Amino acid sequence: MPSPVNVSAAPSSSARPAPGRGFVVFSIALIVAIWALNFIAAKIGLRHFSPLTMGSFRVVFAGLAMLPTYFFCLRLPAFAEAAAAQRRGFSARDYAIFAYLGFFGVVINQMCFTAGLHYTSVTHASVIVGMGPVYILVLAVLLRLERWTWRKAGGMAIALAGVTLMAGKSGMSTHSPTLHGDFITLCGSVGFAIYVVLGKRVARHYDALTMTAYNHFAGALFVLPVALYEARRIGSASAWRAIPWQTWVATLYMAVFASAIAYLFYYWLLRFMPASQVSAFTYLLPVTATILGILCLGEKGTLGEFFGAAVVLLGVYTVESARAAEPAE
Questions:
Q1: How far is residue 308's CA from residue 90's CA, in Å, rounded to a whole number?
Q2: Packing angle between helix 122-130 and helix 150-166, nearest 10 degrees?
Q3: First-to-last C-alpha distance (Å) of the chain
Q4: Which of 167, 174, 179, 195 could form a disulfide with 105 if both were Cys (CB 3.0 to 4.6 A apart)?
Q5: Within 89-236, where are the H helices?
Q6: Region of residue 211 (left: phi > 0; alpha: psi -120 to 50; beta: else)
Q7: What are the tens digits of pLDDT across the range 117-132?
Q8: pLDDT of residue 308
Q9: Half-sphere exposure of 207 (CA within 13 A, CB side)
Q10: Are 91 and 216 in contact (CB under 8 A)?
Q11: Whose CA is closest to 222, among 104, 115, 114?
């Protein structure tokens, strides 16, 4: 799944009238709900599937789901830019760009997200994902795409302090029961941050539908051999029939709703709103996911974890508000 914040990854469209404020707020709330439920779906699917099976099936199914979605959207007036690009065709350089963005944004991000949740809690994973702006900031500064300021540094320090508080009494030691999953989830979030920073350089050349679809196509092709191996490893027809229906529903939900539909919906919103405004609403993701984890999965968080999560969100908000306050270049 994507990080809750993206950085101007979609072209703006001033020619089309913006939707009403109420519809925009409803749309953002819907996306937050879809991505919050994604944590629950992953936990349910992982009760039967191994992390590698669940992750590879999710990526391949997402690529397959994007096929009809892409060609259906090409018929709609709202995606005329994508239709024009499809008629022109793509060069070898275009496909290379789709390949490396699909590797980081789909394969690394979604595979690590799924595997990480096998070893950690929804609370920890949602906060680590919610720190996306911090990872993006570090990479953007290293690549000289963004300026470093004391306000941004302060926000990072606050977020890191919150992570330390979330570690609990044992601290960030190798004996922490969730450390393994936290690290895998972190790798996935960093993978998406790389996707955002690299995608920022080419965002002007591709529309949202084209980028989303072809990145998912590339990700599915990368992971297809793994998915076929995992499918063969399941074994006989009786073993396939023994897989609970809840597992398939969870996997399809992650592929169709949390990947294909939510990505398109998110980038569609960015055509009418600055990314900083959209991200202000998606700070609710860790809170919503944690509440769902408690209600649906019976997870129990400590007071220190909740306080640490609040501190992390404060740090993330400080970083993003500092970036939003800068004049556009």
A1: 47
A2: 170
A3: 29
A4: 195
A5: 92-102, 109-119, 122-130, 132-142, 150-166, 179-202, 208-234
A6: alpha
A7: 998 888 778 778 877 7
A8: 73
A9: 18
A10: no
A11: 104
Which amino acid appears at position 119 of this protein? Answer: Y
Instruction: For residue 101, give both structure tokens.
Output: 């963005």
Q: In angstroms, rounded to a whole number, what is the distance separating the alpha carbons of residues 93 and 71?
A: 22
Distance of alpha carbon 66 from the chain centroid: 16
Neighbours of 17 (CB within 10 A): 8
Question: Could you give the C-alpha distances from 158 to 167, 310, 312, in angstroms and in order?
Answer: 15, 10, 7
121 Cβ contact list (under 8 Å, min separation 6): 178, 181, 293, 299, 301
Judge whether 8 and 275 are in contact, CB under 8 Å. Answer: yes
Q: Which residue has the tokens 């092709």?
A: 221
Measured over the CA atoms of residue 256, residue 257, residue 261 and residue 267, the dihedral's sign is negative
Helix/strand/coil (H/E/C) assignment for every residue in 180-213: HHHHHHHHHHHHHHHHHHHHHHHHHHCCHHHHHH
- Cβ atoms of 269 and 28 closer than 8 Å: yes
Cα gap 243→257, rounded to integer Å: 21
In the structure encoding, which two tokens stand for residue 197, read together? 């920073």
Nearest to 107 by CA among 4, 7, 187: 187
- From the number of C-beta atoms within 10 Å of its C-beta (0-12, 13-18, 19+), residue 23 rates as exposed
- Its pTM stands at 0.79
Q: Which amino acid is it at 238? A: S
* pLDDT value of position 305: 67
Residue type (1 letter), 6: N
